[in-house]
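## Example record

The block below lists the input lines for one assembly entry, exactly as stored, with component labels intact.
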Amino acid sequence: MYRYDQFDEQLVRERAAQFRGQVERRLSGELKEDHFKPLRLQNGVYLQLHAYMLRVAIPYGQLSSRKMRQLAMIADTYDKGYGHFTTRQNIQYNWVALKNIPDVLDKLADVEMHAIQTSGNCIRNTTSDHLAGANADELEDPRPWCEIIRQWSTIHPEFAFLPRKFKIAVTAAAPDRAAIKVHDIGLLMKPNANGEVGFEVFVGGGLGRTPHVGVSVRDWVSKGELLSYLEAIMRVYNRFGRRDNKFKARIKILVNETGPEEFTRLVEEEFAAQGPKEKVVLPDEEVARIMAYFAPPEFEDLPEVSQAFEREKARNEGFARWARINLRAHRTPGYASVHISLKPQGVAPGDATGEQMRVMADLAEQYGMDDVRVAHEQDIVLPHVKMDDLPAVYAKLVEHRLATANAGLITDLIACPGLDYCNLANARSISVANDIQAEFADADFEEEIGKLHVNISGCINACGHHHVGHIGVLGVDKKGEEFYQITLGGRADEKAAIGDIAGPGLRHEEVRPAFRRVIDKYLEVRNGKSETFIEVLERLGQEPFKEALYASA
Amino acid sequence: MPLLKDGKEITDIWTFVDDEAELSPGGCFTVSLGRFLSEQDMLLARNEDVGVRLGPADDPELLKPVLDRLNLIEVEFPKYTDGRGYSIANLLRRRFGYEGELRAVGEVLRDQLGFMERAGFDQVLMQAADAEAKYAAATSEFTEVYQANADDRATIFERRHGAREQ
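Predicted structure tokens for the full assembly:
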């Protein structure tokens, strides 16, 4: 994992000091809220329904046990004992007092963390594959490039006041676990004709009011020119992106109003016009320095099959189920990646208590090579665990309500905070999530249904990514009553697609039975268990599911 | 409104003249890009007292042929959250090699001065009192930087491998 050197440390400390001064000027009245707002946003501070919310950056979702323990301490000391892991691999605290935030930023700096650019109209936290460095299917580790992008984008002097927020995601694996095509810029590591690894560049993906799948603007750019190419895109966006209407200000609108060909031409023209002094200099020894931090940990030489693991599976049904559902294959024999679900019944998806964070930190330290990841599905992942240790890990997770066996299944749903916390929301999200979880609470039944992504947003801003859920739910307000629009067929993976709206909105209490009818229909028409929900939807289209959705019981 | 050059308050000898207003003989004037382009020959014949004010949507490349004959370019920030002026300044300084005076006008606030200095603005027309002290504080908040900009500082990427501080 990357470690700060004196330069990173100094910059993060100076940023915290800068914001402390800004908060003091705000509290004294010298700085008006109007002028303070973008400053606080660029330090992760939102004004929410009930209080200030602080969003802390977890670059490309990677934590160590030390960092996780500090997040737990902050939850216990400055919040109400919990934190909320987000779809952008960050963590949010919903109850922090503004006057305490500078202290929290200092505590974060103590463990090489910050909240820089976690909101505001600037380049946000770079996200990536939560299995980076562990999965068998990646070309190479994308994290060094995420870290390079993190540093390049931090307090960028030209791009701190963009038309709108800007999100970059990087992956190096064909199965896209980072949803790169629904980001402002998505980077896919791939070789060119000569076998040299570089990046394919997708631009203009995004959800919100007008969802778009990103378009490929460049088939391949070299590692050495990546940052210069990103600067060309950013400059075209900064100069020509719309600023007259905040809902039309994302780069996806520029790409679509300009047309992808013309947009690409503008970027290429800007890139070609960069003089030698304008190119971003990234010395080879600097790339090597950063890459060295991501060298694989020292894995033991282990047999493919773990006797301890097999014994426990035969003995303990709960363990066997959890192992079937929550483990992912590791590239090294004898190891697995563990999904820790933050979606037990009746909890806001993505929430963890300080105590749970400490447990996960302990497990990472004792069994997980001190590596913890936040997945964009709002779950936690221990990427490197010995199969022999899985029974012990599982036992500890069970004790702390962290062993829900639902990774990738229907109750492992993504939901925004909704009307319960957010001042933008039109409808509740968490209660809908909990209803669906209750309907599919039977573990056998849920496993029978198989792989299915449900995404719930409490308003059109789409923080729950409903457009890319296999089944998406969007809360809307109609004359003071909550209604829920259902979309079908969205996906955020390498076949990224925006779901289609199935029909009129449902009342809150209608969502649960409607989900049940859709799932019953799926079970009825699928060609055996191996055909997943999204595959059936692709084969048969929406019609049978629409019918089921609106058939009154 | 205090005018700062390199952080020190100076007297403003320049006047911006509206597109409809007549130019009086003598004195230093800036005009809009549109007016400058249509009256270029006449304006440039007025010796060394002409400058251009660029709006955020203006294309600075249009000034490329005459940059060495301009003494002042003003870049307007209609709102402090409008970041187009930073790209304009970068283009003028780093791509087109403009070396004359570059002034930020409009909603110029203390907490953006650091960005403006980095983008190559040597002058800022500020709305606040106590401008010199604010400028000094705002432009010394960060010792090192990750990115190159018009101020030509060595980046942290380079500094880690022996580049000298500039």
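The mean pLDDT of chain B is 94. Residues 3-140 of chain B form a domain with the TIM Barrel fold (CATH 3.20.20.70).
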